[in-house]
Specification:
This protein has 416 residues and is mainly β. It is built from no helices and 45 strands.
């Protein structure tokens, strides 16, 4: 939709239909098009709102009209007249006159918050109904159905009708994607975004464990793991919990480790082992053997290796280092070989390269397993993270090389 000046006449013109579709708009010298549906126009220094047919939707009496706030565009319009603001929802047709110092659009549904001269706030529903008194000091959205509000220095929870779900007796509310931790007198509880109080307020600490579970610590420091239905998955007990996936967890206690499913069953029962998790994989070290599994127990590599390690890099896609019977190589994160077990030594990655040794010659491989700097040095170290250079021992002595293997300078001492 565009505005076209023709013989000093301004018309709304549909470029797709290639024809004018609205009346003469010469009286409106400034037009701002809004996604083919509305125009903010100026007449005699005042703003008004037109639809695509040129019909006046809001009269020319506003100092400013702008579409949406905080990421909520049309059909939401904030209206400024003098020092006050109003609100218009073009989807529902509901209109709030500009009689309050501030309006804020709370969500895409059309809930708004109005602020009076004394700083007190109230909530209005999309149909224009006022659902709270002007007694709130601050209010913000929590999930699709709830609001967190401040009143007299305390926080409470309201639903979309303004009903009080939890009274104003909270010292803090920590909201997350689908839950909120309620804090009262240094104790904590957990509220789901559907309004269900999953855990009462008598825990020392609560935090999420993936999308499906929660960790909670009791006053006696015993820890529990709950699912979203409030069922105890693990505990109570003194153990540590690491989330491996939304439905799998690593438990550690008394020098033993286990992997637990969200239903309470074990992928690996407690045993003297170490479990290292990264990039969706678990390196498991049993006494005298190493294996590689996914958190759900799917085996990637059997438990027969002398070493499996994440070859750390400054990226999340660094390969896996594998060792068996004194030979080393690399795998990708799907467990596919990038190199054979052919090297007598293999280092971790730094800036995409790793030093390797074979038959007393050193070179460098990239994260694809390709030998990009040939086996030619008598010694080599991994690359420096800042300078992206490294020291190697060549036939002419210790030198610095760049990532292409080119000598950048000699060190001031001879080959031993």
């Amino acid at each position: 939709m565009v505005a076209v000046d023709s013989n000093a006449q301004v018309w709304l013109f549909d470029a797709q239909l290639d024809k004018p579709i609205a009346r003469n708009l010469a009286d409106f010298p400034e037009l701002i098009s809004l996604d083919r549906a509305y125009f903010i126009a100026t007449q005699n220094g005042k703003k008004g709102l037109l639809d695509q047919s040129g019909k006046i939707i809001l009269p020319f009496e506003y100092d400013l009209i702008h579409s949406g706030s905080d990421g909520y565009p049309t059909p939401h319009f904030l209206l400024t007249k003098g020092r006050n603001q109003g609100y218009y929802n073009s989807a529902s047709g509901h209109f709030f006159p500009a009689k309050y110092p501030a309006f804020e659009i709370m969500d895409s549904l059309g809930f708004v918050e109005a602020t009076r001269d004394d700083g007190k706030q109230a909530l209005f529903a999309p149909d224009g109904k006022q659902i709270t008194d002007f007694e709130l000091e601050y209010v913000y959205r929590f999930g699709p159905n709830l609001f967190v509000a401040d009143k007299n220095g305390k926080k409470g929870i309201l639903d979309n009708t303004g009903k009080l779900i939890h009274p104003f007796d909270l010292t803090d509310v920590r909201t997350s994607e689908n839950y909120a931790v309620l804090v009262k007198d240094q104790q904590q509880g957990l509220l789901l975004d559907n309004g269900t109080l999953l855990l009462p307020i008598h825990f020392n600490y609560i935090e999420g464990a993936g999308k499906l579970a929660f960790k909670a610590r009791k006053p006696d420091n015993a820890q529990l793991l709950y699912d979203r239905a409030g069922r105890v998955v693990a505990g109570p007990g003194n153990f540590d919990i690491q989330t491996l996936a939304d439905s799998c967890f690593r438990l550690s206690k008394d020098g033993q480790m286990a992997i637990l499913r969200i239903d309470g069953s074990f992928v690996l029962p407690y045993s003297e082992r170490s479990i290292h998790f990264q990039n969706g994989l678990c390196i498991v070290e049993e006494p005298g053997k190493w294996g590689l599994i996914r958190p759900d127990g799917t085996q990637v590599l059997p438990f027969k290796y002398d070493l499996i390690a994440f070859a750390h890099d400054n990226s999340e896609n660094a390969p896996i280092l594998l060792g068996q019977q004194g030979k080393y190589g690399y795998l990708d994160l799907q467990g596919r070989p990038l190199t054979a077990l052919e090297y007598d030594y293999a280092d971790a990655f730094a800036y995409g390269l790793a030093a390797v040794r074979k038959q007393d010659k050193w070179g460098f491989v990239d994260t694809s397993g390709h030998l990009v700097i040939p086996l030619q040095f008598r010694y080599a170290e991994n690359f420096d993270f800042e300078k992206q250079e490294t020291v190697v021992l060549s036939d002419r002595g210790y030198v610095l090389i760049d990532r292409e293997g080119k000598i950048t300078r000699d060190f001031p001492f001879d080959t031993p």
